[in-house]
Design a protein that fits this description.
Layout: H1 9-23, H2 31-38, H3 43-49, H4 52-63, H5 65-72, H6 81-95, H7 99-109, H8 115-138, H9 148-164, H10 166-173, H11 179-197
Helix pairs in contact: 1-2, 1-4, 3-4, 5-6, 6-9, 6-11
């Protein structure tokens, strides 16, 4: 494949990098390999991203961009915004089934240079989540005693686990976790959290 439009070169490199890094260890992937898959000269990686590490980190940012956009959406401040975020997460990860495993490798096994990028994204999520929870408490839409750290860990667990061990779950329930199934799961998890966060009689 030959890249005909130079303006698409960064996009082609991101897609090629995603495919390469999902299918092989970071240290085993070469810039020549990525460039060959993208159909461009390897020098374009240095031109657009600086080096392999820069490309790797930008790949993570762009792959997770739908989640970042969701964080900035004012709808997330509403209770049903939780369901919407679960759906966006499941949709994003379904498009790249191996990506949750890559995230786990980066965070738990210090795999690749993207750990700082993911930490920044988690911090951004923490900041947004803190503001959202504070707003919902003031509006008496959730229990005032809710511990944000516990809520955040619960939320991340409900989002990540189904996609992280999707194959195991599918074998266990003997059905495919397709888009229809994941939409239902997003709705269920959203409602589950809404009921768990509901104000007590004392609020």
């Amino acid at each position: 494949m030959v890249a005909k439009d130079s303006e698409r070169t960064p996009e082609l490199l991101i897609k090629a990098a995603l495919n390469c890094f999902l299918n092989d260890e970071y240290d085993k992937v070469t810039t020549r390999q990525i460039a060959a898959e993208a159909g461009v000269n390897a020098s374009m990686i240095r031109y657009y991203f600086g080096n392999k590490e820069g490309l790797f980190e930008d790949m993570i940012r762009q792959t997770l961009s739908p989640l970042l956009d969701a964080m900035d959406n004012p709808e997330i401040d509403k209770m049903d915004g939780l369901t919407g975020f679960f759906k966006i997460y499941y949709d994003t990860m379904s498009q790249n089934p191996k990506f949750p495993v890559l995230i786990l490798k980066i965070m738990a096994l210090n795999h690749g240079p993207g750990k700082n990028v993911l930490k920044q994204l988690f911090e951004r999520g923490k900041s947004t989540g803190t503001n959202t929870v504070s707003t919902l408490k003031k509006e008496h839409k959730i229990d005032s005693s809710i511990d944000f750290d516990i809520l955040r860990i619960s939320f991340v667990s409900l989002a990540m686990m189904p996609m992280l061990v999707k194959n195991i779950f599918e074998e266990n329930i003997e059905k495919e976790m397709d888009s229809e199934f994941l939409d239902k799961l997003a709705m269920f998890n959203g409602q589950l959290m809404m009921k768990g966060l509901a104000p007590s009689n004392n609020d």
